[in-house]
Amino acid sequence: MQNTEWKLYGDGRIYSLAKDPLEQTPLMKEDLTKKVKRKISTFEKVLEGYEVTN
Predict the structure, then answer these.
(1) Strands 14-16 and 6-8, how do they pair?
(2) How far apart are CA 51 and CA 45, in angstroms?
């Protein structure tokens, strides 16, 4: 799940696409601002709606 600024993978990895467009360094949720945490929480809710298949 992503927007133009942030990307969240189903395994929990978070990237700032503005600061790390090559996704080299995942961020820790607890290090994010409250505003960004709210956005990531929205992403998580969307991802919960998808069934993972192998």
Answers:
(1) antiparallel
(2) 12
CA-to-CA distance for 46 and 34, rounded, in angstroms?
19
At 11, the pLDDT band (50, 70, 90 cuts) reads very high
Asked whether the predicted pLDDT for residue 51 surpasses 80, the reply is no
23 in Cβ contact with 7 (< 8 Å): yes
Residue 49 to residues 8, 9, 30, 37, 46: CA-CA distances in angstroms?
14, 14, 23, 19, 5
Q: How confident is the model at residue 49 (pLDDT cuts 50, 70, 90)?
A: confident
Whether the CB-CB separation of 14 and 7 falls below 8 Å is answered with yes
